[in-house]
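User: Show me a protein chain along with its predicted structure.
Assistant: Here is one chain, sequence first, then structure tokens.
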Amino acid sequence: MLSFEKRPQPSKFWIIFTPILAVILTLIAGAILFSTLGKPPLESLKIIFWDPLFHPNYAAYSRPQLLIKAGP
């Protein structure tokens, strides 16, 4: 029978790599979802993540909102 054994110390590689891997897999899943819906995946991800911060028409409103929502 298989059993789990606790490691004496967590792997430093996985401590750093796990959040990065989670973000990458989330972006891939989002791209797959958008392409399934018939939308261009890279353009959709750009609209969600890039335009609120750097688009000339939206950034003036979105940047302060990001700080408000990210705060405590």
